[in-house]
Amino acid sequence: MNMTIDYLELSDVRVSFDGFLAVDGVSMTVLQGDLRFLIGPNGAGKTTLVDAITGLAPATGSVRFGRTELIGKKVHQIARLGIGRSFQTASVFEKLTVLQNLDIAAGAGRRPLSLLRRRSSVPLEVDQVLDTVGLAELRDRPAGALAHGQKQWLEIGMLLVQDARVLLLDEPVAGMSADERAQTGELLRRVGAQRTVVVVEHDMDFMRSFATSVTVLHAGKILSEGTVAQVQADPNVQEVYLGQAATEKALAAVAAAEDTVADQERGKVED
Amino acid sequence: MTALAGKLPGRLPGKFPGKFTANRGVLLGFVLGALVLLVLAPAVLSDFRLSLLGRFICYAIVAVGIGLAWGRGGMLVLGQGVFFGLGGYVMAMHLKLSEAGPSGVPDFMRLYGSGQLPFWWEPFKSPVLTLLGVVLIPSLVAFGLGAAIFRRRVRGAYFAILSQALAVAFATLLTGQVATIGGFNGLNGFRSFFGYNLFDPVNKRMLFYIAAVTLLVMLLIVWQLYRSRYGELLIAVRDQEERVRFLGYDPANIKIVAYVIAAAMAAVAGALFVPIVGIISPANVGAVASIAFLIGVAIGGRATLFGPALGALVVAWAQTTLSESFPSFWIYFQGALFMLVVAFLPGGLASLGAVLRRRRGRARTGSTEPPASAPLVDQDRPPPEPLPGVPAGSEAGR
User: Fold this and answer.
1) Residue A218, domain member (yes or no)
2) Measured in Å, how far apart are chain A's first and last C-alpha atoms?
């Protein structure tokens, strides 16, 4: 167990593309054990914010992991500090096996000369993670042959063997079946207890089921932050999501419609 | 030889159908290669043909390096002539100096230049420094170039054009230096190699053996690299460079290693080429020569272990044979072969076996099984809407 609690602290982060502020002064803190969901309409700056944290997008302001400032560091340096991310489209090494994918993810700290040898045995952490993400049976399968959901799990597994203390997941359940979503949510809960997890997500059902806290981004700024209930009750959020003409009636209708759709989906999957 | 390589399992990147069969196949390939090169060829070929095969082996050594950099590392190295030339010229300078006579100045310098030895020729009087220089000078140049190019994230076609331009520039530079490095004629007219008479058939045979063993050693080196964790990492960088970065590696370093090894191999080949062929000139290092190195690799199968070397040998052999009977016809044949392979066998001739096996398997089952990569989940489904009824105006206008 960690005696100290990890945390990710953003203050006044800005990302500008040719004068357009994609992220406009975002400040937030995410603690270890929190399962933070980052939501917002398309173009709100969610992915850009993740890019800024991981060094891909040039940002100003401050991103601190514990006492370490991340802004100004290179992508691979930030990764080595324990910040891991996944991508909207699962990006695993398709020609390599599941085991090789995980082994590479586990190996950033290996000494150069040790890389010139063959892998003599499966590293312990890789073995454990194969079980954690449920891919032990498929370890010698090329990653390109995995189902979409399994690729996303492999990607989460790669973050785990990488020993990422902060997981930044960009739409981890996009394109998954309801079953796979539930499994992914449980997986995130399990691994999130020891880590700091930020999930960029569009799927509101998924968010309601698994988020412990939510940050809503809109036009590069934080619109609202709190628990799922708090955020959903926030009139600003409703306005952004539903437009100015939204009424209580529309809200209720939407909720009812969503429930039916969700029920139907659940029914379909259970057949 | 190519058909054999097609049967060897485990030569496609990422396919490991059990390590014992793969290892046995590779071992078999090495044993056969050694038998053919070290026993069969010297027994049946005339001295002239054997020396010709020695030249092809030099091309094959360059090809092994290109296979590593291009096939496994994804770097389209269109300028290996630079490193081939550096290794070749270093060796040629030593040979020139060692037979320069009492004045210590090579003949062409007295003819075209001041008759003074330039200071940068001095180190190559020493055999030891020459051998070190053959490997170290091109490696250092490749390291410098690689560091500059890969750290700036130059890749793909831009890298290919850059490396091609380097070969052109190098050849142009050499051509302009008549007085100091032989200019257009290059360096030639060698009579001895580290004290051994180059006109003696026994010594010529020895050179062939040295080249053949060098090729086998280079193949062993890349085999170990392909089996190692580095080999897996190189494939990862080739296919998803950015993803590797997010795992905490600097992909530039991984690419530099492959680039430097490929350069060193080309340089060693150049150094062997000089005593075997008897000349090194700008024509051996320029753009045309550099592209010729690549064609054999593409035809043989760039990502395989034996493919590049076999392809280089076959193409060079075909070129010589065909140009003997039909001079001026070869260039069309080469172009046609290249296009056929790229269009119908992108994995090169080494993938022929695998392709045929897949065909046969499909014919036997009578149905086309879904490819292994078919997703079990329909990926075409659009991502779920954030919330129904979101007005388009709420988009942040990106």
Assistant:
1) yes
2) 42
My answer on whether A170 and A180 are in the same domain is yes
Q: Write out the residue range of the structural domain in which residue A49 sits.
A: 7-233
Q: Provide the angle, in degrees to the nearest 10, between the axes of the packed helices B201-227 and B229-239.
A: 80
* CB spacing of B225 vs A116 below 8 angstroms: yes
Q: What CATH number did the domain enclosing A160 receive? A: 3.40.50.300
Question: Which residues does B13 contact at the CB level (< 8 Å), separation at least 6?
Answer: A95, B71, B72, B235, B303
Residues A140 and A254 reside in one and the same domain: no
- Binning pLDDT at 50, 70 and 90, where does residue A249 land? low
Domain tally for chain A? 2
CB pair distance less than 8 Å for B232 and A104: yes
Considering only the beta carbons, identify the residue of B236, B246, B377 that sits closest to A79.
Answer: B246
Q: In chain A, which residue's Cα lies nearest the Cα of B248?
A: A76
Same domain, A250 and A210: no
Q: Does residue A34 form part of some domain? A: yes
Q: Give the separation between CA A209 and CA A222, rounded to whole angstroms.
A: 22
Q: How many CB pairs under 8 A join A and B?
A: 159
- Which of chain A's residues have a Cβ under 8 Å away from the Cβ of B389? 242-243, 250, 254
For A36, the token pair is 């933070």
Structure tokens, B128: 């030891």
Give how far B60 is from chain A: nearest CA, Å. 23
- Kindly list the domain boundaries of chain B, sorted by start residue: 62-284
Q: What is the ipTM of this complex?
A: 0.83
Could you read off the pLDDT of B60-117 as tens digits, one per residue?
999 999 999 999 999 999 999 999 999 999 999 999 999 888 888 898 888 887 788 8
Q: Are residues A266 and A171 located together in one domain of the fold? A: no
